[in-house]
Design brief:
MetI-like fold, mainly alpha, BP-dependent_transpt_permease, MetI-like_sf
Length: 286
């Protein structure tokens, strides 16, 4: 007699949990939202609370390391680094908001009009965006700032103007896709004019794509503003900016690295958080 062979069923291998990636994504979104909330609240507090005055100097606490009295230390004339970092966030948020507002409105309008009307209008908008892209952005901003001076309006409008081509091309591509849908054709057959169709049918369906890109525009504006301030062509002291705070700490980096580290790390964390939220919005993840 032959021994009875018993068949053993294969043991299923444990695969990756499909819920792990969404959970990590939601955690990143929550952390990014919390960080940006802290930055916004800190920027508002620095403008409202006298105890967070970024210009108040304490000559008895010059170049002090982080302590219970000064959580992030002090600079070369005794100014609190925490107060100055929070105030620098206010400058970056103002410039970022102005950039998105101007770039989205102007670029979105041009892109929607070009994408819906096509023809000569589309060609003219294309030439305009190519002209803007033809100028070296950093050199152009430096030249204008040198002539007119630096301020929130100057920096915000300049960076916003340079973001118009990106918004216009994105809005144009989305409009070309939307204008062929049945509901647009139905509105056109019912006698609706171009302005009404763009207002009621095109804009509501194009805004989500532009809104997702706005996060990328905010990060770019924060980095550009910080770079200009670092080079001395952005917001000028006494207006605090993350860029000029980093520049101020260069000469004391060996002995007081906290002067540069605090605004630099805050800038990096803010840019990362805005990017995380932008990616979550583009993927439709809460």
């Amino acid at each position: 007699m032959h021994p009875v062979e018993t068949a053993t069923a294969p043991v299923p291998q444990a695969g990756p949990d499909p819920r792990a990636a969404p959970s990590r994504g939601r955690l990143g979104t929550v952390l990014a939202s919390c960080w940006l909330g802290i930055v916004v609240l800190g920027a508002a507090a620095s403008a409202l609370l006298p105890g967070l005055d970024p210009l108040r100097a304490d000559f008895s606490a010059i170049l002090q390391p982080p302590s219970a009295r000064h959580w992030l230390g002090t600079d070369a004339i005794g100014r609190d680094i925490l107060a100055r970092t929070l105030a620098g966030g206010r400058s970056s948020l103002i410039v970022g908001a102005m950039t998105v507002a101007f770039g989205l409105v102007a670029g979105g309008f041009l892109g929607i009009v070009a994408g819906y009307l096509r023809g000569v209008v589309d060609g003219a908008v294309g030439i305009l965006t190519d002209l803007i892209l033809a100028f070296p952005a950093l050199i152009l901003i430096m030249a204008i700032v040198s002539l007119s001076g630096a301020g929130y309006w100057t920096i915000g409008l300049l960076i916003g103007g340079l973001s118009i081509p990106a918004f216009a091309r994105l809005a144009r591509a989305a409009t070309i896709s939307v204008r062929e849908h049945d509901y647009v054709q139905a509105a056109r057959n019912m006698g609706a004019g171009p302005l009404r169709i763009m207002r009621t049918e095109i804009i509501p369906n194009v805004l989500p794509a532009i809104g997702a890109y706005s996060f990328a525009a905010v990060t770019a504006s924060i980095v550009v503003e910080g770079s200009l301030s670092f080079l001395g062509f952005g917001l000028q002291p006494p207006l605090p900016s993350w860029g000029n705070l980093i520049a101020e700490g260069r000469s004391h980096f060996a002995t007081a690295p906290w002067i540069t580290a605090a605004p630099a790390l805050t800038l990096c964390a803010t840019v990362l958080s805005v990017n995380v939220l932008g990616q979550a919005l583009s993927k439709g993840r809460p």
